[in-house]
Amino acid sequence: MNQTNDNSMPQRKIISNGVSPVVTRFAPSPTGYLHAGNYRTAVFAYLFAKHSGGKFIVRIEDTDAARSKREYEENIFDALAWLNLPADATYRQSEHRSRHRELLEKLIAADTAYVSKETPQKPGDREEVIRFRNPGGSLTFSDVIHGDITTDVTDLGDFIIARSLDEPVFHFAVVVDDADEGVTHVIRGGDHISNTARQLLISRALGFATPTYAHLPLIMDSQHKKLGKRTGAKALTDYRLLGILPEALLNYLAFLGWNPGDTREYMSRDELVEAFDLTRVQKGSAVFDEVKLFSVNQHWMRKLSTDDFLTRGNLSSDSPEKLRKAVPLLQERARTYGEVQEMLDGELSCLFSAPEPARDQLLAKELPGRQAVAKSALEGLLEAIKALPGEVSAEEVKGVIMPLADEEEARGKGGRGAVLWPLRYALSGQERSPDPFTLISILGPEESLARIQKAIAILEG
Ligand code: GLU
């Protein structure tokens, strides 16, 4: 499951000050439903924290009051709970306004920041903002994934850090909150690399310790466009509706830009925690491939016991025994619980309600004397099916019925199909259905007989 475009994976040393335990954070803005790529950041931050015996915190960055909604915030916590990424602490950025104000005032008092008179360019522009006094020069920080990154900060000018004392911009709030919450490792999307220089200048001016930065590789969609809502990325919680298991999604997201360095493709949460390290995060972008996600999901669905498979999919039926017997078939074919439901409503619906096969369809196609052939073929099976035990595997059924179909073939009246077609149709009444051996093993001999007898009566009628 290597999503890599860039396979070079130099071993890098993670610098730790050896004193403070690792604290990572996921800092989403609740301005929309987040997609799977957004949660990849949470997955990496969580796994790294837990691998290091540290803490994982979630901070809702809701300072953009116009665009932030509680509904989105709830969706974020819902998604994190579903993925089983519990936070050791949660914060809401808007609740730190007085602290932000205090530190803005401190910078202004030290003349590291100043209130700047502005000439509004368009309606709504402020006449006053707070700007950071840029010391200029070049600034280098060492990113765990990308190595040294140098920015000529002179180019940034005296950038804005707040629109007013109560409206810090993102760069300021993020730096203050990370420091106050004891964040040691800022693990976030690669699109934030260009923000880091500004944030480091603010952090230094406030006398904070510099966290370690790890900017994650970008995630592309299958069209090689940056994964995003605008390019059609689904909300993560939509995958729950599609019937993806959270352990499968977690497994898949962990491999978007990381791998364990061996051949493992399927890893449980505990195995991921054990193996995860930032040193193996790749620089090159990763590709989000839904087909691959579905196949990872199929792996995890197949690993479930019959009981767990039914419980996890919330599956029940008036005929619980038949449903249980259909589980191997579902595990073989369905990649998601959505597909399980499609199979139960479609191809497998015949298991739960007796078919009304149409006369014409019971007749094996293009055979001379079709009616007589189909009827005698079905009648020829009655004794054999009657003799089957109540619990019987598809293989056993096949062992009994195939020789009869072979005899029919030997008689040259249309081959095995002359038996197997009317049989399958009598049992299912459907164009598409599992093979008749599987059907008999799930329906049981008694119900199979009843269906065959009904078909014979239709053919006689
Ligand atoms: N709130 C920012 C975002 O949603 C993340 C800030 C950060 O990780 O530093 O993109």
Describe what you observe in this structure:
- This protein has 461 residues and is α/β, with parallel strands linked by helices.
- It has three domains: 198 residues, HUPs (Rossmann fold, 3-Layer(aba) Sandwich), CATH 3.40.50; 46 residues, no CATH class; 102 residues, Arc Repressor Mutant, subunit A, CATH 1.10.10.
- 46% of the residues lie in helices and 11% in strands.
- The protein has 18 helices and twelve strands.
- A three-stranded parallel β-sheet has the order 1-2-3. Strands 4-5-8 form a three-stranded antiparallel β-sheet.
- α1 crosses α8 and α4 packs across α5.
- It is elongated and about 100 Å long.
- Bound molecules: glutamic acid.
- The site of glutamic acid (GLU) has 7 residues, from loops.
Topology:
Elements: E1 23-26, H1 36-51, E2 55-60, H2 70-82, E3 89-92, H3 97-109, E4 113-117, E5 128-132, E6 138-143, E7 147-152, E8 160-162, H4 170-180, E9 185-189, H5 193-205, E10 212-216, E11 219-220, H6 236-241, H7 246-254, H8 269-275, E12 286-287, H9 290-302, H10 306-312, H11 320-333, H12 337-345, H13 349-352, H14 359-362, H15 370-386, H16 394-411, H17 417-428, H18 436-460
Parallel strand pairs: 1-2, 2-3, 9-10, 11-12
Antiparallel strand pairs: 4-5, 5-8, 6-7
The structure holds glutamic acid.
In brief:
With 461 residues, this protein is of the alpha/beta class. It contains 18 helices and 12 strands.
Supply the CATH class of the largest domain.
Alpha Beta
Largest sheet, in brief, is:
3 strands, parallel
Total E-strand runs: 12
Estimated share of beta-strand residues: 5-15%
Number of domains: 3
Number of helices: 18
Percent of residues in helices comes to: 40-55%
Average pLDDT, all residues: 92
Bound molecules: glutamic acid
**What is CATH's topology name of the largest domain?**
Rossmann fold
Q: Which overall shape is indicated by the principal axes computed on the Cα atoms?
A: elongated
Provide the succession of SSEs. EHEHEHEEEEEHEHEEHHHEHHHHHHHHHH
Query: What topology, given as strand order, has the largest sheet?
Result: 1-2-3
| Gyration radius, in Å | 32 Å
State the CATH architecture of the largest domain.
Answer: 3-Layer(aba) Sandwich
Unreliable stretches covering 5 or more consecutive residues: 1-17
Ends: how far apart? 58 Å
